[in-house]
């Protein structure tokens, strides 16, 4: 059995007038991630983690944000497309772990729903996906800028 590890990060501003879609679910929050797509920074970070582990191109190369086809794209579709490529390359997801840094929305009340959403998208069991929120403690430019910053790590296992 071969193993590969990949790391993905993403950061989006949280702005008014956008739904707060993170991890493939909509959270009740007055602001949401800006972006060309739906701005789901969790799915973007995971997409980069799985493609990175498989030695494939990154999300910006696979799905260019200047391509009008991807305007307001559902990031679940981008992740599914990337996962297809990972599977075709002979890998499947072993596990994914995600850290979401933000002053809000609160992640903890939505952890279970987010893990289920991610497990379904990644075609694995819920215990192979973990998510946790970290407050920025009001200390960084990120916190003042009203943003979400995500790190995701993924282990791939050979098919
Ligand atoms: Mg992004």
Q: Any overview of this molecule?
A:
The chain has 159 residues and is an alpha+beta fold. The chain has a single domain (3-158), classed as 2-Layer Sandwich (60s Ribosomal Protein L30, Chain: A), CATH 3.30.1330.50. The protein contains 5 helices and 7 strands; from the N terminus they run ββββαααβαβαβ. The protein has helices at residues 41-54, 59-62, 75-88, 111-122, 141-144; strands at residues 3-16, 20-22, 25-27, 31-33, 91-102, 129-134, 147-158. Helix 1 (41-54) runs parallel beside helix 3 (75-88). The radius of gyration is 15 Å and the shape is globular. Bound molecules: magnesium ion. Magnesium ion (MG) binds at residues 10, 12, 35, 41, 44.
Distance from first to last alpha carbon: 8 Å
- Structural domain count: 1
Shape: globular
- Biggest sheet architecture: 5 strands, mixed
Total strands: 7
> How do the helices and strands follow one another from N- to C-terminus?
EEEEHHHEHEHE
| CATH-defined architecture | 2-Layer Sandwich
What fraction of residues sit in β-strands? 25-35%
- Unreliable segments of 5+ consecutive residues: none
In short:
The protein has 159 residues and is of the alpha+beta class.
Layout of helices and strands:
Blueprint: E1 3-16, E2 20-22, E3 25-27, E4 31-33, H1 41-54, H2 59-62, H3 75-88, E5 91-102, H4 111-122, E6 129-134, H5 141-144, E7 147-158
The structure holds magnesium ion (MG).
The site of magnesium ion has 5 residues, from β1 and α1.
